Structure formats: C-alpha cells, structure tokens
Amino acid sequence: MLKDSELLAIILKSGYQGTTAVQLGEQILTALGGDLKRMADYKSKQFEKIKGVGEAKAAQIVAALELGKRLARFHAERDKITSPSDVADLMMSKMRYLQKEIVCVLCLDTKGGVTTKGIAGDLDSDLTWGKKLSEATVFEGTLNASVFHPREIFRFAIEESANSIVLVHNHPSGDPQPSQEDIRATKQLIEAGNQIGIKVLDHIVIGDGIFVSLKEEGFI
Q1: 167 in the same domain as 107
Q2: Is the Cβ–Cβ distance between 170 and 179 less than 8 Å?
Q3: Which runs of E-coded beta strand occur in the chain?
Q4: Under a CB-based contact definition with an 8 Å cutoff, are residues 129 and 116 in contact?
Q5: In the predicted model, what is the mean pLDDT of the chain?
Q6: What average pLDDT does the segment 140-156 reach?
Q7: Domain check: are 97 and 35 in the same one?
Q8: Domain shared by 49 and 103, yes or no
C-alpha cells in the first residue's frame, strides 16, 4: 500500500529544485501537522503557501480532493431517504471534516415514500420518509457552536414545498453526541413544524465516520 506522501507524489508529478515529488508530498503533510484530514478543508490559496506548491500543483491537489469527495458520495446518492443511516451516508463525506459547525436541512416529499421502519419503535405511524427534494446549508457556526432559527429553516422548506424535513449538523470534534442545546433546539423546531404542517422527522449529528440520530436515541 502506498504511503500518503507517495499518493501525493503521483498527483504532483514532480518536485522542485532538487526535491522529489515524494519529498514534496512529505512537506505538504508536515504543513498539515501530519493530519491528512485537514487537507479536505484546504483551499488552493492555502496549498500555494507551502514551499514548492505553485498554482498548478495546488489546482491538481484540489481537483484530486474534489474527485475523491464525489466518488465517496457516489454510492450514497439516492432518490429516497428511508432511514437515518441513509442521511448519514449522504452527508458524511460532505460534513465529517469541516472545521466549523454547519446546519443543513434535507427537504423530503411523499412520492415513493415508505412508512418509517427500523428506526425507533415509538415513531409516529404518520411520519414518512420519501424522495429527497433538495438540501441546503442554512447556518454556519463557529468551531463549537451553531444556531438554529426556525424561520430560516422552515422558509426554505416552504419554498421547496417539502412535506417533511431532516436536520443535519456536524460536530468538528468528531464526537456526534448531541448537546443539551442541540436537543432543546430540535424540540422547538419539532413544535414549530407541527404548527405549520411540516414534520421534522429527525436530527442527525455527524461525527468523524459516526453519527447519532436524536430520534433513534430517544432524545426527541
């Protein structure tokens, strides 16, 4: 199995001034503090600040990263969202390495929807999962906090004619355990959704390769 620096060398193709492509790959990893995951959040300009990485090489790295992200999502993309694990599959590659908390909302319709099953025994029988209409980032927070505003979330849901929504947000720490504020805010959104006829089916918290469904865990 090739080392990370060797994989980078293949992308880079060459080094600079007596430095091999593999050595340049090692320098890039050193600049990242040895944490390969940080690369997922890097922009071209950040790579260009590393010695030996010009505009062209930065573009090569960013293009390879984007291709990898798309391939990681490829198997997860599907028309129907039928369970919390489907949501996690769809959003994990997009959110697991983010350095800030963001809140996304997935809007669902009822076409081809199936009765919720295999999630939690106490789910209301009238809650259905269905085809994903759209998704949007509705908030971007700081490193350790995000804010939920029902007005913004439900405005988007209404614009998309959604029958129901699923909230998704990430924890940059990698630990998806929901905070008390996460739980409190979700309960408020559920109440608001009930008043306007848009069900909040679940709230999924994304960690580093793992997730928590507030519904499955009995938090809501």
Answers
A1: yes
A2: no
A3: 102-108, 114-115, 128-129, 132-140, 164-170, 199-206, 211-213
A4: yes
A5: 78
A6: 67
A7: no
A8: no
pTM comes to 0.57
Question: Which tens digits make up the pLDDT trace of 22-78?
Answer: 999 899 989 888 888 788 778 888 888 889 898 999 999 989 888 887 776 665 555
For CA atoms 63, 65, 68, 74, the dihedral sign is negative
Tokens of 103: 């809140």
Nearest to 181 by CA among 206, 152, 203: 203
**Domain endpoint, select from 17, 41, 74:** 74
Cα angle at 99 between 93 and 103, to 5 degrees? Answer: 70
Exposure letters 127-139 (e unless 16+ CB within 10 A, then b): bbbbbbbebeebb
Buried b (16+ CB within 10 A) or exposed e, 170-193: bbbeeebebeeebeebbeebbeeb
Write out pLDDT tens, residues 152-182.
788 888 887 888 888 898 999 999 999 898 8
**Alpha-carbon torsion 67, 69, 70, 71, what sign?**
positive
Residues 40, 65: contact at Cβ < 8 Å? yes
The pLDDT tens digits of the residues spanning 64-115 come to 888 887 776 665 555 567 788 888 888 888 888 888 888 888 888 765 232 2
Q: List the structure tokens of 30.
A: 């050193």
